[in-house]
From TrEMBL:
Residues 178-207 are annotated as: Disordered. Residues 145-387 form the Peptidase S8/S53 domain. The keyword Kinase does not apply. Belongs to the peptidase S8 family. The keyword Oxidoreductase does not apply. One of its GO terms (molecular function) is serine-type endopeptidase activity. InterPro entries: Peptidase_S8/S53_dom (IPR000209), Peptidase_S8/S53_dom_sf (IPR036852), Peptidase_S8_Asp-AS (IPR023827), Peptidase_S8_Ser-AS (IPR023828), Peptidase_S8_subtilisin-like (IPR050131), Peptidase_S8_subtilisin-rel (IPR015500). Keywords: Hydrolase, Protease, Serine protease. The active site is at residues 154, 186, 358. Pfam families: Peptidase_S8. It comes from Actinopolyspora erythraea. This is Peptidase S8.
């Protein structure tokens, strides 16, 4: 249930609107929990839950009762929309487009990583850094993300990973029955790209793969180890991130739904008003080789959420990367490296190379942290900085938006 701006203004009004419309007696609120981090297991005992920093309420009802509530809500000025809950998924490329590489890769002249090509330009991983950091200008930036909080909402993080030892990091699970520890790998990979260290520890050593190496990291586990989660999981983590003044919220997740969700559009707008920019993966439902350009899905198709497309090492659009959706806000806003991206993976593998708009998204999120450090921009101003700083590409804007995200000097 999406509450109107008027009802959103006061938490007591949010609770009353949810209680009166849903018939709930016991209404939980995120404000009842430390750091406004909803305990999803405790909240399961409530009849309904209010995400106080978002103006969103959730309740459980059978189809007949839900239809009755929706009919009543349609005539209630306190409610903007009522939507059924959906499942969201980690967005890897087709079959996760995973490159099966050794757990510890030691560059040599035989790998092709250091090969220099011209006409067209092609980036490649080197012993020093991934191709994505080279292409986005991160290696030339003096910024590190220090003082900026970045929330990565995904499958969690391998909290044992040595590359994050000693980092300013908070991890919470919003998935019932599962800890923040990543049992999937997708989240660990995304945290690594957005906020991995500038100088990965040795041994065994690794090329640099992380953008904002000194940013404060908030890890929200919203997808279970199987790679899926509900809107409730995601909204709980967004509420937590916003209430803790996260400048950037990175979400490499979504669903192949064309229509914009009122829920996520309202959340995106209210996040921007609070100074938090939500960055989300455009989606991997394209097969351009087969003539299918795909479309940007939920939540990235919300006008107030930045949608990220994926580029390959020649700065061409990835075969799987979704094209702009004709719905309002459904366009790709910006693009970043998303093919054969090397980053952290749960131990004992330690590192892995995979592809997807999921891998492009944390590049943009990390660069947003660098820009926030340089300019102190928040919300819409930070969005504008990202678009203004992007490098235009000789590709349709429906595929890459403003172009490739670039780090500030």
């Amino acid at each position: 249930m999406v509450l109107s701006d008027e009802a959103f203004a006061r938490e007591s009004d949010q609770v009353e609107a949810l209680r009166s419309l849903s018939g709930a007696v016991n209404v939980a609120s995120t404000s009842d929990y430390e750091w406004r981090a909803l305990d999803v297991e405790q909240a399961e005992g409530a009849d309904a839950t209010v995400f106080a920093d978002l103006g969103i309420g959730i309740f459980t009802a059978d189809p007949e009762r839900a239809a009755s509530i929706m009919a009543a809500a349609a005539d209630d000025p306190r409610v903007t929309a009522v939507e059924a809950e959906r499942f969201m998924y980690a967005l890897g490329g087709p079959e996760e487009v995973r490159s099966e590489s050794p757990a510890v890769q030691t560059p040599s002249t035989d790998t092709g990583w250091a090969t220099v090509r011209t006409a067209p330009v092609e980036f490649a991983d080197t012993a020093e850094a991934t191709w994505g950091l080279q292409a986005t200008g991160v290696l030339d930036s003096e910024r590190t993300g220090q003082g900026i909080s970045v929330a990565v909402l995904d499958t969690g993080l391998d909290l044992r990973h040595p590359d994050f030892a000693g980092r300013e990091l908070t991890a919470r699970s919003f998935v019932s029955g599962e800890q923040a520890q990543d049992g999937n790998g997708h989240g660990t990979h995304c945290v690594g790209t957005s906020c991995g260290p500038s100088n990965p520890p040795e041994p065994p050593g690794s090329r640099r793969y992380g953008v904002a190496g000194q940013a404060e990291v908030l890890v929200g586990k919203v997808l279970g180890d199987g790679g899926s989660g509900t809107d409730t999981n995601i909204l709980a983590a967004i509420n937590w991130a916003i209430s803790n003044d996260c400048r950037v919220i990175s979400m490499s997740l979504g669903a192949d739904i064309r229509r914009v969700s009122w829920r996520y559009e309202t959340v995106g707008r209210r996040a921007l008003n609070r100074g938090s920019l939500i960055v989300a993966a455009a989606g991997n439902n394209a097969d351009r080789d087969a003539g299918n350009p795909g479309f940007v899905g939920v939540p990235a198709n919300s006008p107030s959420i930045m949608a990220v497309g994926a580029l390959d090492s020649r700065l061409g659009i990835a075969n799987f990367s979704a094209r702009s959706n004709p719905v309002d806000g459904g366009q790709v806003d910006i693009a970043a490296p998303g093919v054969e991206v090397y980053s952290t993976w749960p131990m004992d593998r330690r590192y892995r190379t995979i592809s997807g708009t999921s891998m492009a998204t944390p590049h943009v999120s990390g660069i947003a942290a660098l820009l926030a450090q340089r300019t102190d921009a928040r919300g819409e101003a930070l969005w504008s900085e990202l678009v203004r700083g992007a490098q235009r590409l000789e590709l349709p804007a429906v595929d890459v938006g403003a172009g490739i995200a670039k780090a500030p000097s």
